[in-house]
Amino acid sequence: MAERTDRRVRRTRERLHIALIELMIERGYDRVTVSDVIDRADVGRSTFYAHYRDKDDLLLVSCTDFLRREVTRTRTDTSALAPLRVMFDLARRYPQVYRPLIGPKATTTTLHSYRRALAELLAELLDQPDDAVTFLSWGLVGVLTRIIDPACAIAPEQAWERFEALVLYGISGGAGPARADGAGSPALR
């Protein structure tokens, strides 16, 4: 019975998550209400509030859960930063979802919710103090915005290379790997 209930809960949460994302793409986050989400998901109000406090909670929890599932599903490399690479591919594949979350027209709520989702995931993956996790999560948001920005987009591979070099070797790149052209760390190129 518990497995059946868990499947029902997962389906309900998934429908609410999809409804929120679709409505954000159509209208922008600020113009979406809980009523809009439950109507789109075909879920009762009491069911919504049994799972989430409000739409901000739905956004944070669903982003965190989605990122956690994607990292787990695609994890093959054991290096500390490797699980983060999936986020670069997600931004490339779903720019229409990422733009209302972290793009130039993102609201403070969506930006901070997505950053908090990243911080929660980073805290689970990396053994780092809170301030380092906060720093990395904001840096990750910044680099991901470059992938989704049509005016100055960079390839996810290039964005990952820059992010990884900055995290591993710092802004000076002193201990960074040598490039084929002899230029040192690719962090700032």
UniProtKB/TrEMBL annotation:
Residues 10-70 form the HTH tetR-type domain. It comes from the Bacteria. InterPro entries: Homeodomain-like_sf, HTH-type_Tx_Regulator, HTH_TetR. Residues 33-52 bind DNA. Keywords: DNA-binding. Gene3D superfamilies: Tetracycline Repressor, domain 2. This is TetR/AcrR family transcriptional regulator.
